[in-house]
Design brief:
InterPro entries: Homeodomain-like_sf, RD_transcriptional_regulator, Transposase_8
Number of strands: 0
Protein name: Transposase
Keywords: Coiled coil
Structural class: mainly alpha
Order of helices and strands: HHHHH
Radius of gyration: 29 Å
Oligomer: single chain
Number of domains: 2
Distance between the termini: 106 Å
GO molecular function, one term: DNA binding
GO biological process, one term: DNA transposition
Strand content: under 5%
Largest sheet: none
Low-confidence stretches: none
Mean pLDDT: 87
């Protein structure tokens, strides 16, 4: 059998496709925001599941330092406000017993 004959029986080569960043971001949103599994998204978009995972890693942005700092401050404020609330509850109960 010649090379030409064996090549004609093999599967046709799939052409390499390229995707826009918008397409990739929408695919990632389907996983991260809409709750679909990567495999489901890959099947529906006719792409390899590994691509979905790679796009997710590429386009998922880690929290910035300013967001982390703000989160820390907000947690401290919540803690302080809870303490104030608890003190006021105890004071209210104390003064209610005196009367």
């Amino acid at each position: 059998m010649s090379k030409q004959q064996s090549n004609s029986k093999s599967k046709p080569k799939r052409t390499r496709r390229s995707f826009t960043d918008e397409f990739k971001i929408e695919a990632v949103k389907m996983v991260t925001e809409q709750g679909f599994k990567a495999a489901e998204v890959a099947r529906s978009l006719d792409v390899n599941e590994n691509l979905i995972h790679r796009w997710k890693a590429k386009f998922s942005q880690p929290e910035s330092d300013t967001e982390n700092e703000e989160l820390k401050q907000l947690r401290e404020e919540v803690k302080r406000l809870r303490m104030e609330r608890d003190i006021l509850k105890k004071a209210t109960a104390f003064f209610a017993r005196e009367n």
